[in-house]
Amino acid sequence: MRGFRPTKPERTDTQSTAARVHAELRRRIVHGELAAGAALSENGLAAEFSVSRTPVREVLRELITEGLLEVGRRRQNIVTAHTPERARELSLMLGALGDLVAGESPRVLEHGDADILHLILIRTEREITAGRFEGAVDGFDDFLVEVAELANLPVVADTMRRLCAHARLAGLGVPASPEALSAHVTMLRTLAEAVEAGDREAARVTMGAITSARGTARDDRPGAAD
């Protein structure tokens, strides 16, 4: 039986503001709207979001902790740039983490647990049909994270979320064509079915193909999301 997910405490106004700013900045970075090396100004962000510098400073620190930002030579907060060596490491980590999740999830999932995976795929297919590439890849990321959550592996799920974000920053992932995106959805659906059936071997094989695709370098990333 899966463990329960504890109810999160209510956020204060400051925490809610920080969460809103964090979500938007993270989206811009992961979607490529803020390019590697771009500097983020604390004062500029505070003005843009109509908030004080305190929540902005908190968000920037959190993004640095996540590795999405780094401190530049002039003490600026800049979007992290990934080297080919780091990209290769990310690819290897995705594969290892995916194998762990695929091996564990069929063992602990209960009947009906995978319904949310199919809902994510439906949403992802809508993004593909609408031509929203980054939205489709958001769905891919959410799917992998949710598989880990369903397997009652919260630490792994958080790590997977961060790895997926870094993989996108490093230019790794599925090509931005409807055919490639739809083929990836098919693999994810096959994984969901293997997990539901309790077939660990099939889940591992399929997850291996998925993480291999997510860990492959690509050079056709759009400059910005729709």
UniProtKB/TrEMBL annotation:
<dbReference type="InterPro" id="IPR011711">
    <property type="entry name" value="GntR_C"/>
</dbReference>
<dbReference type="GO" id="GO:0003700">
    <property type="term" value="F:DNA-binding transcription factor activity"/>
</dbReference>
<dbReference type="Pfam" id="PF00392">
    <property type="entry name" value="GntR"/>
</dbReference>
<dbReference type="InterPro" id="IPR008920">
    <property type="entry name" value="TF_FadR/GntR_C"/>
</dbReference>
<protein>
    <submittedName>
        <fullName>DNA-binding transcriptional regulator, GntR family</fullName>
    </submittedName>
</protein>
<feature type="domain" description="HTH gntR-type">
    <location>
        <begin position="15"/>
        <end position="82"/>
    </location>
</feature>
<keyword id="KW-0804">Transcription</keyword>
<dbReference type="GO" id="GO:0003677">
    <property type="term" value="F:DNA binding"/>
</dbReference>
<dbReference type="InterPro" id="IPR036388">
    <property type="entry name" value="WH-like_DNA-bd_sf"/>
</dbReference>
<dbReference type="InterPro" id="IPR000524">
    <property type="entry name" value="Tscrpt_reg_HTH_GntR"/>
</dbReference>
<keyword id="KW-0238">DNA-binding</keyword>
<dbReference type="InterPro" id="IPR036390">
    <property type="entry name" value="WH_DNA-bd_sf"/>
</dbReference>
<keyword id="KW-0805">Transcription regulation</keyword>
<dbReference type="Pfam" id="PF07729">
    <property type="entry name" value="FCD"/>
</dbReference>
